[in-house]
Amino acid sequence: MVKLVLMNSEEYQKYITSAIKSYAIEKVLSGNWNQEESIRKAEEEYTRLLPIGEKTESNYLYTILNDDKAIGVLWLARKSEKEGFIYDISILEQYQGFGYAKETMTQIEIVGKELGMNKIGLHVFGHNKVARGLYEKLGYQTTNVLMEKEI
User: Residue ranges of the N-acetyltransferase domain (predicted)?
Assistant: First the structure.
């Protein structure tokens, strides 16, 4: 069973470096940004959303553990008193396909409820059919490109 543990500063630094690159690639693949501007724009976006990194208020950045081994990350933000938003969920490539993302999504619903949330939303890039399929199976409803689920 997976476990969610809040990131420390060292884990956050590794996360942010990787996340900026991944986000830039996704924005280019989706046709939103061109290659030349993508890293700069991704850095600006992360700086805006997480101005003080893992200590940014109303943001919960987790390392996903399985048997005490880090297998991925999840970022949940409080958007209002009762609503959360998953900005990022990522399972390391070598651990994909084993149900860890599904387990993680179940765990974050428990965490969301503990934080007083009754709804969690997320964004999925249109070209990410695997993720869309998972979220739909878990009960998330499509609202434009955003998906959300009552929890």
Answer: 18-151
Helix 9-29 and helix 35-49, axial crossing angle in degrees, nearest 10: 140
- List pLDDT tens digits, range 55-105: 999 999 999 999 999 999 999 999 999 999 999 999 999 999 999 999 999
Per the rule left: phi > 0, alpha: psi between -120 and 50, beta: everything else, 70 is beta
Q: What is the fold of 2-150?
A: Aminopeptidase (3.40.630)
CA-to-CA distance for 102 and 127, rounded, in angstroms? Answer: 19
Provide the strand spans (E) within 16-128: 59-66, 69-78, 83-91, 119-123
Stretch (H or E) spanning 141: strand 141-143
Q: Where are the domains of the chain?
A: 2-150
Taken in order 28, 105, 98, 147, the sign of the CA dihedral is negative
pTM for the model stands at 0.85
End-to-end CA distance of the chain: 20
